[in-house]
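Data availability (excerpt). The following record was deposited with the supplementary files.
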Amino acid sequence: MIPGLLAYWTHDLSPFLVRFGENFGIRYYGVAYLLGFAAGAWLLRRYAVTGRSWLPAIAVMDFMTALVIGVMVGGRLGYFVFYQPNALLHDPLVLLRVWEGGMASHGGFLGVVAALAWFARRQRIPFLHLGDLVAASAAAGLLFGRLANFINGELWGKPATVPWAVIFPDSPLPLVPRHPSQLYEALLEGAVLLGLAQWRFWRTSIVQRIPGVLAGEFLTAYALLRIVGELFREPDAALILGMSRGTFYSWFTAAAGLALIFIARARTPSRS
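Predicted structure:
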């Protein structure tokens, strides 16, 4: 240990909940996805049984299956397209090596949009309403995912001198204390965003009155909270126009969210 760093905790958490071999076992990252999907399914069922959803309770698991596929495929493709395009060009099979990690939340969003469009057409449920349902529950998955990022010791923050800074052994040398930005993002993108979405869903009638507004608010709020989190996070790929890629892509997400709010309000007849 470098003198002067003894006051800081060195990250030593195992990425495995249960380990069966050197690189085989039950990883916290996988558990996080399972917990996120389980929480989403529970919330979607709650929306249905309380009469606040046009998605029947009997169709919740079919909907979740479509969302899981959208998240996994979109998140995996998005990681390489947005962050590691050269790796994908030189070795396309890297997409299949999921045990090596690599998921992008912005790619996951695009995958969810594709899944929503397919399911809405198949079940004849309005696309914007389904988007609102996902928006009201998706942050639970973001919360668990960011906690898994911290346990894995990945996506660490920028160098810091705050008392709660952490030394991540896999970060670039020389080892220095860094912001546990994964926990900041778990709080912002996860807990805060989930609380806001739940408040809007249960305490207002926005989902019933103007379908699509909650989804737009979610995208906009996520983007802004992600940009705040990126202030403390070490960029994990080359900058674009002086911004981290997470920040750069979040501006487009915010613009999409604002556009969705405008479109949803414009297509809903006003009531006197």
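Summary of structural features: The chain has ten helices and four strands.
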